[in-house]
Amino acid sequence: MAATSGSIFGAMLQEFDGAARILNLEPGIWKILTHPKRQIIVSCPVQMDNGEIEVFCGFRVQYNITLGPAKGGIRYHPGVSLHEVTALAAWMTWKCAVAHIPFGGGKGGVICDPTRMSRRELEALTRRYIAEIIDAIGPEKDVPAPDVNTNEQIMAWVMDTYSMHVGHTTTSVVTGKPLEMGGSLGRHEATGRGVTIVARESAKHVGFSIAGATVAIQGFGNVGSVSATLLARAGAKVVAITDWKGGVHNGKGLDVEKLLDYVRQHKTVDGFAGGEPITNDRLFRLDVDVLIPAALENQITMENAPEVRAKVVVEGANGPTTPDAHQHLHQRGIFVVPDILANSSGVTASYFEWVQDRYGYFWTEKEVNERLEAKMCEAFNAVLQTSLKYKVDMRTAAYIVAIGRVATVTRLRGMYA
Ligand code: GLU
User: Fold this and answer.
1) How far is it, in rounded angstroms, from Cα 409 to Cα 417?
2) How many angstroms is it from 115 CA to the middle of ligand 1?
């Protein structure tokens, strides 16, 4: 896949190269790990509510499956492209390796605007997309999950479509399902919980306490909203949140529970009376202890990085910081917890769900959360120790850990020819 400059696959390659050089990675393995294993493009005809037929373009990329089945979400967004899905699938590869779970990296996406589609249209699209990629997915092959604009209900349709095709109920083909049909307790909150854990550990490392710390969050979807709730519960002051429509700021701390109620009704934080309006642009420049980009890619760029004043940046989203902006933040002494570590608790809880489905035995929420806490602390410490050992930033360190693990298994398995 060609990397165009300024592209997110190019960003992934840049991050990869920095770590691969430090590891003295041999050229052959370097080549293997910088190419996607499999890219699928499908057309999904759907009869819309007005009777007309629309054809949606969908993708599924299995970037690398050396460690196990491909794992990664399905994204519904007008901006989806093969290029984006490939970069996201590569990041899933490194994320699963950092999290130390036996999965490769995959990602799916459909170009669509789910905010303009009815529930029936979304169901028809989901079922047709899954039918089109049915041969490529499965509990041992590739296990999808939620991502931007997809949720538990959509995962239920994925599970049902696959099960109808193979002729028996197969819960472990997809994670992030409703609890009643093989979902795991704690999965819905897992990504925000992990973001909270790494924010707490980073604060400890940098020298302040998360209790009483000020936090700004971009994004109020699954990751942003759960992070806000759990950070507020941990005593942090969440002072600003923005979403797709607007933002809200309150220097004394927002009432997150009230904001959640407001968003349930209005689908946006815009207009919430418990604070002043704020733009994304201003949110990034706020004088806060912790900044959490939890929306889409390419949000912290050289446009705003020079004015970021946070002590710690925790990447709840995938790829929110461009490589040059990251370099700039690092040089200014800002502690950045990279996406492949910071939001890896989502896929870690997915791994727990897959294990429980295959085992047919389900854990309590306490068990899930305790295992998640242990896995996140293990991953955070492995990356922190690597960053201290090689005197590199946390992102390069996370790549060193991830590439090291995938390369070791690639060497052990050898070349099939
Ligand atoms: N979409 C999430 C991510 O980017 C979760 C993936 C999964 O659980 O497989 O990490």
Assistant:
1) 17
2) 21
